[in-house]
Amino acid sequence: FGILGLFAVGALLMRGAGCTINDMIDRDIDGRVFRTKDRPIARGAVSMFNALTFLGLQLSGALLILLQLNPESIFVGSCCLGLVFTYPLFKRFTYWPQLMLGATLNWGALLGYTAVNSFSFPICVPLYFA
């Protein structure tokens, strides 16, 4: 696979996990909105138990990939979980949920740099905010 393959699959799993969390949290709202009413959880085609099971599989797969990286990368990667879980809530408390989404997705830049180099604030902080 190589590092690029690990990151591609890891990004797919974590972004999918974010979507699953979002759909689980917003299921009641999504059912009342025309654009989102047909999402599987909102329309009842997927139970919350099945959604939670699927989320567990996504996060377990992402963890398996993360554990292939160096210890510093494992720490940096673990630190993004709070962002992944809180992004859906920002839509309810702020008018800038996309800012939180950007903060969450940009974490991959920190993880990618740390996986091939050692974490460095002078390099990683501008990379994160770029």
Radius of gyration, Cα only, in angstroms?
Answer: 16 Å
Number of strand segments: 0
User: What percent strand?
Assistant: under 5%
Q: Could you list the spans in which at least 5 consecutive residues all have pLDDT below 50?
A: none
Average of per-residue pLDDT values: 92
Helix percentage range: over 70%
Count of helical regions: 7
Structural class: mainly alpha
Largest sheet: none
What's the shape? globular
Order of helices and strands: HHHHHHH
Distance between the termini: 28 Å
Give a quick set of tags describing it.
75% helix; 130 residues; mainly alpha; globular; 0% strand
Textual characterization of the structure:
There is one protein chain. Helix content is 75%, strand content 0%. The protein contains seven helices and no strands. It has helices at residues 2-25, 27-30, 48-66, 71-78, 81-93, 97-116, 121-129. By secondary structure, it is an all-alpha fold. The two termini are 28 Å apart.
Compose a concise summary of this entry.
With 130 residues, the chain is mostly helical. It has helices at 2-25, 27-30, 48-66, 71-78, 81-93, 97-116, 121-129. The two termini are 28 Å apart.
List the helices and strands and how they pair.
Elements: H1 2-25, H2 27-30, H3 48-66, H4 71-78, H5 81-93, H6 97-116, H7 121-129
Helix pairs in contact: 1-3, 1-5, 1-6, 4-6, 5-6, 6-7
